[in-house]
């Protein structure tokens, strides 16, 4: 686990317990011991997107593991801006990692190599696969390197962009690194809060649906039911709202679906407004 995190640290510097270290120098990642709680935050034009929500979720993940995050919000925010400044990078994802959470709580902030879908991916939609598993504590954002490796291997084999996690009842809970939504005639469906990680983008989608007067229902969708629906999309830090073209061999007309288009456009406008307001306040 420590090796994986060390290898994924990108650019010149990272912040360890408030201090700057070179990614090519002393290895502080060896001090990050399990259990490990983390967040990935998108940096846009030098501003961390939905920062407050990310920190709040990190605290909730710690609570679920019966621990308390010792750093306050202002300290975390300062470290993120320091990371942006020393690396001179304004558009890339930052990962926050807190390890040994019941004791010393070593805290690392670093850039990770970030891949954002190109415009044609949004225009074409993505291929997804089914992966039969469910996370033991879905509300907590905890590192599970073994599961991640297995899913990545299957995605590579089947040329998938994302894997839909399916539980023992044959229902889709979430994506391996995303939240999943399905669309019918006038309703948006997604799994209940108890079954998924409370994604930051997911929360914004609920707000958008309410504003657009789209009914949104928290209900488990079975794999057998997918072929009867009008479309589907995934949401996440790096992808925003991304239409799903296929689930295994099931074809969906998600790209042309007006509900998905409206949700996507509204989310993009929400992000622009957030970044604009954060710039004004700094």
Automatic annotation (TrEMBL):
Record-linked InterPro entries: Aminotrans_IV, Aminotrans_IV_CS, Aminotransferase-like, BCAT-like_C, BCAT-like_N, Class-IV_PLP-Dep_Aminotrnsfr
Gene3D superfamilies in UniProt: 3.30.470.10, D-amino Acid Aminotransferase, subunit A, domain 2
TM helices/strands, residue ranges: none
Single GO cellular component term: cytosol
Cofactor annotation: pyridoxal 5'-phosphate
Coiled-coil residue windows: 55-86
Lineage top rank: taxon: Bacteria
Any one GO MF annotation of this record: transaminase activity
UniProt key word Coiled coil: yes
Biological processes, Gene Ontology terms: amino acid biosynthetic process; carboxylic acid biosynthetic process
Keywords: Aminotransferase, Coiled coil, Pyridoxal phosphate, Transferase
A Pfam family this chain is assigned to: Aminotran_4
Family membership: Belongs to the class-IV pyridoxal-phosphate-dependent aminotransferase family.
Protein name: Branched-chain amino acid aminotransferase
């Amino acid at each position: 686990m420590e090796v994986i995190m060390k290898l994924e640290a990108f650019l010149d510097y990272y912040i360890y317990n408030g201090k700057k270290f070179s990614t090519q120098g002393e290895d502080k990642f060896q001090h990050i011991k399990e259990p490990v709680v983390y967040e990935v935050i998108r940096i846009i034009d030098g501003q961390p997107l939905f920062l407050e929500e990310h920190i709040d979720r990190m605290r909730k993940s710690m609570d679920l593991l019966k621990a308390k995050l010792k750093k306050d919000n202002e300290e975390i925010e300062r470290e993120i801006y320091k990371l942006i400044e020393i690396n001179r990078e304004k558009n890339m994802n930052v990962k926050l990692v807190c390890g040994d959470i019941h004791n010393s709580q070593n805290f690392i902030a670093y850039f990770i190599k970030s891949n954002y879908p190109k415009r044609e991916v949004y225009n074409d939609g993505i291929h997804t696969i089914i992966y039969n598993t469910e996370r033991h504590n879905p509300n907590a954002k905890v590192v599970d390197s073994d599961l991640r490796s297995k899913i990545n291997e299957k995605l590579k084999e089947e040329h998938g962009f994302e894997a839909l996690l399916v539980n023992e009842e044959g229902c889709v809970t979430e994506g391996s690194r995303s939240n999943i939504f399905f669309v019918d005639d006038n309703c948006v469906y997604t799994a209940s809060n108890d079954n998924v990680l409370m994604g930051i983008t997911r929360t914004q989608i609920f707000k958008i649906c309410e504003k657009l007067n789209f009914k949104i229902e928290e209900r488990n969708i079975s794999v057998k039911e997918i072929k009867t629906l009008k479309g589907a999309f995934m949401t996440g830090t790096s992808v925003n709202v991304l239409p799903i073209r296929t689930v295994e061999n099931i074809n969906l007309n998600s790209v042309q679906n007006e509900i998905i288009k409206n949700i996507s456009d509204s989310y993009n406008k929400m992000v622009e407004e957030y970044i604009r307001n954060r710039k004004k306040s700094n």
